[in-house]
């Protein structure tokens, strides 16, 4: 269950990171409420995952999921760059996540 919890935590991290864009400095009520709720949920599920996953691995995977998901949604929602070096860097993060999962 640890990896499941960690995956949920990572997805919620993507939710709050993207949510920050919509809060407009926490001046909009519903985007702010969603963002704060996603933050709390993300930390909660990270804590559950870290019961059985080493903290270094869990934290790195959690931030990696957040980075990949947020960058991907940035491309899709906000027309952020799809330059080859950027995509290659994201691929390296994915490889790092897979390596950590395989070695834990």
Topology:
Layout (H helix, E strand, L loop, with lengths): L1 H22 L5 H21 L5 H24 L5 H20 L1
Please explain how this structure is put together.
By secondary structure, this protein is mainly alpha-helical. It has one domain. Helices cover 84% and strands 0% of the residues. The chain contains four helices and no strands. Helix 1 runs antiparallel to helix 2, helix 1 crosses helix 3 and helix 3 packs antiparallel against helix 4. The longest helix is centred in the middle third of the chain and has 24 residues. The protein is flat. The model has no long low-confidence stretch (mean pLDDT 96).
Structural key phrases:
0% strand; 104 residues; mainly alpha
| Shape verdict | flat
Rg calc: 14 Å
Major sheet details: none
Helix content: over 70%
Number of strands: 0
Give me the strand/helix succession.
HHHH
In what range is the share of β-strand residues? under 5%
Mean pLDDT: 96
Q: How many helices in DSSP terms?
A: 4
Distance between the termini: 14 Å
Q: Please mark out the parts with pLDDT under 50 across 5 or more consecutive residues, or reply none.
A: none
Quaternary state of this entry equals single chain
Class based on secondary structure composition and strand pairing: mainly alpha
Number of domains: 1
């Amino acid at each position: 269950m640890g990896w499941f919890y960690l995956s949920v935590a990572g997805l919620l991290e993507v939710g709050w990171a993207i949510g920050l864009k919509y809060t407009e400095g926490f001046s909009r009520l519903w985007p702010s409420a969603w963002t704060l709720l996603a933050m709390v949920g993300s930390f909660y599920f990270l804590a559950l995952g870290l019961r059985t996953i080493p903290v270094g691995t869990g934290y790195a995977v959690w931030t990696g999921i957040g980075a990949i998901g947020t960058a991907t949604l940035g491309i899709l929602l906000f027309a952020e760059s799809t330059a080859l070096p950027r995509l290659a860097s994201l691929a390296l993060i994915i490889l790092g996540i897979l390596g950590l999962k395989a070695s834990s």
